[in-house]
Design goal:
mainly alpha; Farnesyl Diphosphate Synthase; two-stranded antiparallel sheet; 16 helices
Length: about 300
């Protein structure tokens, strides 16, 4: 990559804006009935978030030579699944939180029933984007839909959340904790990379290296999240700080201690970066994203 290439900040800003514009385009207008539901869907998705998953999707897609239009659909699909999961996670029957991305959660701003329908609708829209708006070969499109379905369901994110709910007040070992987070948080982050790569073409060995990076970064994200939940303020996080400790949930900090959790994050970062060595300069953005996940403050 030449020295004239955008800085990491410029690149992330461009991808975030591109994703925001694409999400705005794909989400139903409030001029379409039912207006309140569509308004709540847009409230849940637009104008907030780091867009880590779309960034990873675009970075992997650039490495695999993917069509940017295909990456827009894939990046938005995985972001819609992420947004739906946050809406449902914040509801009283789950984590019961009132703040998300610095503003009232969807069930607080609207109501519980609307929040439930928002999550359902965002999930279905995600698959519609892959099915109808992702310009790849039909066989590739089917693989992308399958990847997202597995990552979102009982063998991925939803299953991890079920394990999390069942683990309140339980002292988990490190292996059990990592199994939970490989599913709850890691599955969708890993899927973002796989979707980006799947919009283009990589040989089997390269795809395996990239997948190892993705799985490692997914765990890294959760370790850092647990550290931030312990150390950062509610204002900095944009969500209620200290919720996991208050709810007696097992975390990397409660299981390992704060110092060892930070060390584990550094280990995972090193492993992720090492898995990209084969790609050379072409993996610059993926390396920078691993750095970003390690050092983020919210």
């Amino acid at each position: 990559m030449s020295e004239l290439a955008p800085t990491f900040g410029e690149w992330t800003g461009a991808i975030q804006q591109r994703t925001e514009s694409a999400l705005d385009r794909f989400l139903p207008s409030i001029a379409i009935a039912p207006a309140r539901l569509h308004d709540a869907m847009r409230y849940a998705v637009l104008g907030g978030g780091k867009r880590v998953r779309p960034l990873l999707c675009h970075a992997a897609g650039a490495l695999s030579g993917a069509d940017p239009a295909a990456l827009d659909a894939a990046a938005c699909a995985v972001e819609l699944i992420h947004a739906y999961s946050l809406v449902h996670d914040d509801m009283p029957c789950m984590d019961d939180d009132v703040l998300r991305r610095g503003k009232p959660t969807v069930h607080v701003q609207y109501d519980d029933a609307t929040a439930l329908l928002v999550g359902d609708s965002l999930q279905s829209l995600a698959f519609l984007l892959l099915a109808e708006h992702c310009p790849v070969e039909p066989a590739a499109r089917v693989r992308l839909v399958s990847e997202l379905a597995v990552a979102s369901g009982s063998r991925g994110m939803a299953g991890g959340q079920a394990i999390d709910l069942a683990s309140v007040g339980v002292a988990l070992g490190v292996a059990e904790l990592e199994f939970m987070h490989i599913h709850k948080t890691g599955a969708l982050i890993r899927c973002a990379v796989r979707l980006g790569a799947g919009c283009g073409s990589l040989d089997v060995a390269a795809a395996a290296r990239l997948d190892h990076y993705a799985a490692t970064v997914g765990l890294l994200f959760q370790v850092v999240d647990d550290v931030l939940d312990c150390e950062a303020s509610t204002a900095a996080l944009g969500k209620t700080a200290g919720k996991d400790a208050a709810a007696n949930k097992p975390t990397y900090v409660s299981t390992l201690g704060l110092g060892r959790a930070r060390e584990r994050a550094r280990e995972l970062h090193g492993e992720a970066v090492a898995s990209l060595e084969h790609f050379g300069a072409g993996a610059r953005r993926l390396r920078e994203l691993a750095d970003f996940v390690l050092t983020r403050q919210n």
